[in-house]
Amino acid sequence: MARITAGVTTSHVPAIGAAIDNGHTASDYWAPMFAGYEWSKKWIAEEPPDVVVLVYNDHASAFSLQMIPTFAIGCADVFAIADEGWGPRPIPPVIGDSDFACHLAQSLILDEFDMTIINEMTVDHGLTVPLSLMFGQPEVWPVKVVPIAVNVIQYPPPTGERCFKLGQALRRAIESYDEDLNVHVWGTGGMSHQLQGPRAGLINQPFDNAFLDNMTQNPEALRKIPHLEYLREAGSEGIELVMWLIMRGALGEHVTPLHRFYHVPASNTAVGHLVLDAEPGR
Ligand code: DHB
Ligand code: FE
Predict the structure, then answer these.
(1) Distance, CA 280 to ligand 2 centroid (Å)?
(2) Residue 71 belongs to what domain range?
(3) Most exposed: 52, 109, 249, 274, by fewest CB within 10 Å?
């Protein structure tokens, strides 16, 4: 049977991708940020999962503003890299797992989560920057990826509570797959940031650190955070944090934190990163 062995959260700032692609990771500005991922890169290289179910948001790259699914699942066997204005990032295409993704889609939909099925799409920095942070610059990505895209771009995004419940359904879906797969669930985006308007540049370190604490100590509290609180405390793009709750819902009650990192700022954003063991004591 497929099983969830770990969860990862990380911010997905596009400038991080540009720093990697252009060889700037050792600069004074970037080195302290990348240092926070060294442990994680070693950890994942030692025991890479077979598949990452990667929860992220598209930034009007694949979906444009003509169609915006609230929750979507990528069922293709390959996802090309999106052109976000400077040409596609010079990284390998993302390899999917069509059979597994179709099983997840069936299980989630029959479990009353009306996922949009995506058979062809490109993937943008929301998905590729987390891959680059965890795996560096390989010729071929060492894992397959099932993308789960969440609308946090146009109001109304789903609630944190709904996202947490989708995570719980995702666990049931993963654990009902016959193949013996080692699966990670990643929640990406966040932490506090606002890219627009009079409060552009907003970062709220106390809010972010409490959120990081509660990912392990009190996820029940995170489920209840309403949209307006994200907006007020974490800025207009802080709502990306609801995607972390899909990962947290999927991991079940008991997790052990393996690694935690917080760094301010990267571009306009507070970078937060967690690695959680989903099978404590294994
Ligand atoms: C930035 C952060 C994001 O999450 C994003 O999607 C785009 C830009 C930034 O900090 O520049
Ligand atoms: Fe974003």
Answers:
(1) 31
(2) 3-277
(3) 109
